[in-house]
Design a protein that fits this description.
67% of the residues lie in helices and 0% in strands. It is an all-alpha fold. It has a single domain (12-32, 46-177), classed as Arp2/3 complex 21 kDa subunit ARPC3, CATH 1.10.1760. The longest helix is centred in the C-terminal third of the chain and has 31 residues, at 147-177. The chain is globular and about 50 Å long.
Amino acid sequence: MSSPLPRRRLSTRVLLICGALAAVHLLLHFATLPALTALAPVSPPIYGLIAGVHSLMPFLARRLTGVPGSAVLTSAIAALFVVITNGAGLIAAVPVVLAGAVIDLVVWRSTGSGRRSQIRYLLAAVAAGAALFAVSLAVFSPEHLTPVVLFATLTARVLGEVIAALLSGLLASALTRAGVGRGIRSDQSKPIS
């Protein structure tokens, strides 16, 4: 019989981390918006691959904090930022929030950075890629609804999410070594006397 997982909650510190990562997400959104706008009607597979960067911050939030719900919270804050700064309105929030929700659903009880946890993050990436592909079908032009383009776009979307998941693992390790996230030792947070 396994022992229950320790209860983790949304502390002020976790909320601040999620907010900061959402702000970085907005910067990534601005940086990729021109390319994604140009690629969407021309090459959905390349669009799908590059769009994976939008899941980087939700993955990173979940890894850094270890708190269930932190990926979707980061996504929701980022979606609010995107909606406010984007002429597309609420429709722009759907893929942003969907990615965070899928990540949290798949890695909900995952703890640590062991092999089992890493597999869960990769499964979350595959599930998020498939979900985001399904949502994007609504805006596909008729000439892109061919088996080759659909398969290439699904593959690229999943690959983009897998890259985001792997990159988030590297960033989380580097940030934890630097003293950010759940890896901070308790003796580092004490004031210097």
